[in-house]
Design a protein that fits this description.
Blueprint lengths: L1 E6 L4 E7 L4 E6 L6 E7 L3 E9 L4 E6 L6 E7 L2 E6 L4 E6 L7 E4 L4
Antiparallel strand pairs: 1-2, 3-4, 4-5, 5-6, 7-8, 8-9, 9-10
Protein backbone atom coordinates (compact mmCIF):
# COMPACT_ATOMS: atom_id res chain seq x y z
CA UNK A 1 0.00 0.00 0.00
CA UNK A 2 1.06 3.61 -0.43
CA UNK A 3 0.11 6.11 2.23
CA UNK A 4 0.06 9.90 2.11
CA UNK A 5 2.20 12.20 4.23
CA UNK A 6 -0.06 15.10 5.19
CA UNK A 7 0.99 18.55 6.39
CA UNK A 8 -1.23 19.12 9.46
CA UNK A 9 -1.21 22.90 8.99
CA UNK A 10 -2.51 22.83 5.41
CA UNK A 11 -4.14 19.37 5.48
CA UNK A 12 -2.61 18.69 2.08
CA UNK A 13 -0.63 15.66 0.98
CA UNK A 14 3.05 16.55 0.64
CA UNK A 15 4.34 13.11 -0.27
CA UNK A 16 3.72 9.39 -0.32
CA UNK A 17 5.49 6.39 1.17
CA UNK A 18 4.90 2.64 0.90
CA UNK A 19 3.67 0.59 3.84
CA UNK A 20 2.62 -3.00 4.39
CA UNK A 21 -0.84 -4.33 3.65
CA UNK A 22 -3.72 -2.52 5.36
CA UNK A 23 -1.91 -0.24 7.81
CA UNK A 24 -4.20 0.14 10.79
CA UNK A 25 -2.94 3.11 12.78
CA UNK A 26 0.01 5.47 13.07
CA UNK A 27 1.96 6.78 16.06
CA UNK A 28 4.96 9.14 15.98
CA UNK A 29 8.22 9.22 17.90
CA UNK A 30 8.50 11.90 20.57
CA UNK A 31 10.40 14.24 18.21
CA UNK A 32 7.85 13.65 15.42
CA UNK A 33 10.49 12.53 12.91
CA UNK A 34 9.53 8.85 12.76
CA UNK A 35 5.95 7.71 12.31
CA UNK A 36 5.19 4.00 12.76
CA UNK A 37 2.31 2.26 10.97
CA UNK A 38 1.00 -1.13 12.07
CA UNK A 39 0.57 -3.35 9.00
CA UNK A 40 -2.49 -5.28 10.15
CA UNK A 41 -2.93 -7.24 6.92
CA UNK A 42 -6.03 -8.36 5.08
CA UNK A 43 -6.81 -11.95 4.18
CA UNK A 44 -3.29 -12.83 5.27
CA UNK A 45 -2.54 -11.52 8.79
CA UNK A 46 0.17 -8.84 8.77
CA UNK A 47 3.41 -9.24 10.72
CA UNK A 48 5.28 -5.98 10.28
CA UNK A 49 5.39 -2.36 11.34
CA UNK A 50 6.45 0.34 8.87
CA UNK A 51 9.05 2.77 10.23
CA UNK A 52 8.94 5.93 8.11
CA UNK A 53 11.70 8.53 7.92
CA UNK A 54 9.74 11.67 7.10
CA UNK A 55 12.64 13.80 5.86
CA UNK A 56 13.77 11.13 3.36
CA UNK A 57 10.26 9.79 2.70
CA UNK A 58 11.65 6.27 3.08
CA UNK A 59 10.19 3.24 4.80
CA UNK A 60 11.81 0.25 6.43
CA UNK A 61 9.93 -2.64 7.98
CA UNK A 62 10.17 -4.01 11.45
CA UNK A 63 9.58 -7.73 10.87
CA UNK A 64 7.57 -9.20 13.74
CA UNK A 65 8.30 -12.81 12.81
CA UNK A 66 5.54 -15.05 14.14
CA UNK A 67 3.66 -12.14 15.77
CA UNK A 68 0.51 -11.38 13.77
CA UNK A 69 -1.97 -8.51 13.41
CA UNK A 70 0.01 -5.60 14.94
CA UNK A 71 -2.31 -3.11 16.53
CA UNK A 72 -2.51 -0.57 19.35
CA UNK A 73 0.76 1.33 18.86
CA UNK A 74 2.30 3.57 21.53
CA UNK A 75 5.67 5.32 21.75
CA UNK A 76 7.44 6.12 25.04
CA UNK A 77 11.04 6.50 26.27
CA UNK A 78 12.55 5.75 22.84
CA UNK A 79 10.63 2.50 22.49
CA UNK A 80 7.74 1.39 20.32
CA UNK A 81 5.06 -0.68 22.06
CA UNK A 82 2.44 -2.66 20.15
CA UNK A 83 0.00 -5.47 20.52
CA UNK A 84 0.05 -8.60 18.40
CA UNK A 85 -3.69 -9.13 18.37
CA UNK A 86 -3.66 -12.67 16.93
CA UNK A 87 -1.07 -13.82 19.49
CA UNK A 88 -2.61 -11.90 22.42
CA UNK A 89 0.78 -10.36 23.25
CA UNK A 90 2.28 -6.97 23.93
CA UNK A 91 5.67 -6.30 22.31
CA UNK A 92 8.38 -3.67 22.52
CA UNK A 93 11.12 -2.57 20.14
CA UNK A 94 13.74 0.13 20.70
CA UNK A 95 14.16 2.53 17.79
CA UNK A 96 17.93 2.01 17.54
CA UNK A 97 17.57 -1.78 17.35
CA UNK A 98 14.89 -2.56 14.76
CA UNK A 99 13.72 -5.88 16.17
CA UNK A 100 11.34 -7.08 18.83
CA UNK A 101 13.23 -7.42 22.12
CA UNK A 102 10.43 -8.07 24.60
CA UNK A 103 6.97 -9.63 24.64
CA UNK A 104 4.45 -10.24 27.40
CA UNK A 105 1.35 -12.39 27.40
CA UNK A 106 -1.59 -11.24 29.46
CA UNK A 107 -2.39 -13.67 32.23
CA UNK A 108 -5.95 -14.74 32.80
CA UNK A 109 -7.93 -12.52 35.15
Amino acid sequence: MVEAIVDPATRKAVGHVPTGEFPHEVVASTDGKLPFASNYGGTTPGNSISVIRLAARKERRLDLGSLRRPHGLAFADGKLYFTAEANKLIGRSPIILPRVVWTMRRKRW
